[in-house]
Amino acid sequence: MYDFGQIHKIPTVIMRGGTSKGLLLRRSDLPSDPKLRDEVILRLYGSPDSTQIDGLGGGTSLSSKLAIVGPSLQPDAHIDYTFGQVSLEKKVIDYHVTCGNFVTAVGLYAAEEGYVPLQEPVTYVRIYNTNINKMIVAEIPVKDGQIEYEGDFVIDGVPGSSAKIMINFLNSGGTFTGRTLPTGHATDRIHLQDGRQFEVSIVDCANVVVFVRAGDVGLQGTELQAEVNNNKGLMSTLEAIRVEAGILIGMIQPEDREIVSPSSHALPKIAMIAPSQVYSTSDHRTIEENEIDLISRYISMGSLHRAYAVSGAIAVAAAAKIPGTIPNEAVATQKKGIRIGHPSGVIYVESTVEQDGTNWIVNRAANGRTARRLMEGYAHVPISVLREK
Length: 389
Hints:
two-stranded antiparallel ribbon; alpha+beta; 21 strands; globular; 19-stranded mixed sheet
């Protein structure tokens, strides 16, 4: 290729992990200076631009994920994983969140790239997530000395079936605030600037999520993307609740109230909860009431998630086992796991929760996902990007 010294090439792998998609970049292939590194990554994705037409981003928050990976610096882990949410609207990469879907891609990548020797029937990949300083264990199926890709496991929101990859989140309670219930309460009352009040449950488990009843914001809970995203009054209310909850637990400063946005402050997340009921998915399938334990709608980067974030589902599963929380009151019968109805179907998550004084310990939360390598090669950026200050 004749680039006349004008193009810099970076080894890149594009993968799908769960219902997310993005780039996996090796730590060693990126500039060591964080500011310059992010300049390069933003140019790779084509951000900021809502279409990301001049880059490898997919033009949605779900397809603008980032994993920076490398040999682990931790003695008990195989690979380090730094997650980034690449903004479409701003020149920003948010490293203050994590993604339970995309970690599935990291687990498969580590097995494919030889970070861990393959063992039958399951290879356990220990992933150190630097965003939250927690260990995640991916179970990669192996048969006849090779990774097993084909299977009959299906996740709603992704076409077809693949081999199941179990993702185990260890000791995931209090990931960001140190407590599974940051305020110490199962519910809190949020006061908006316009005088309205809403009862919420704030749960910190894999991600910090604010749960509000769908009925309290005027919804049934079964609504799909267009009904939620096009309802500007609803979205404004949800954002206001999210911001006030963030102020309550110290993740957002009161003086920043007017300038906060999902791009500038991705945490806390917010999700609506409703009791199980019959509804139609975005692909017109009927989910019966007895197929799920509750319904939830998860807001990601200012719009309704077309499926459900794994980290959000883990928070739901933990909250459902803590008496008095909004997810707990929506579940009729306690079981080992919980089935969450979302716009694309159902996601199943297991959790083990126990009380420790005034705190709740989430020893394990697990979810089955699939992943696939989509492309590998070189991504190109202008050499001038490396010279930017």
